[in-house]
């Protein structure tokens, strides 16, 4: 579900993470996604729950999910909402700088 919210197919989390990395995903967010992938994979398999997991691992898993959501969903949405409240000419100047920076960025 989360991977589809991040713009990927949501069928193979490993492939989805790699696609995000290929698009320039921040390495810290990649690590958080891999943490969730690996802890989740090791914790629960069909018909099997690992009762040896510590509360700290579960707590950190939720922290990682919150970090991912804040970085990839909440912050961009908040920025979009904030920028949309500006006058059109200011929005245009901000977009022009973003476009210029994107044009100068090395290809992924």
Automatic annotation (TrEMBL):
Domain DUF4145: residue ranges: 1-56
InterPro entries: DUF4145 (IPR025285)
Protein name: DUF4145 domain-containing protein
């Amino acid at each position: 579900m989360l991977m589809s919210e991040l713009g990927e197919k949501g069928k193979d989390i490993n492939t989805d993470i790699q696609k995000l990395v290929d698009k320039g995903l921040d390495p810290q967010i990649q690590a958080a996604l891999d943490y969730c992938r690996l802890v989740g994979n090791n914790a629960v398999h069909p018909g099997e729950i690992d009762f040896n997991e510590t509360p700290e691992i579960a707590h950190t898993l939720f922290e990682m999910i919150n970090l991912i959501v804040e970085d990839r969903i909440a912050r961009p949405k908040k920025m979009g909402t904030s920028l949309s409240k500006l006058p059109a000419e200011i929005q245009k100047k901000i977009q022009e700088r973003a476009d210029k920076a994107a044009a100068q960025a090395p290809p992924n």
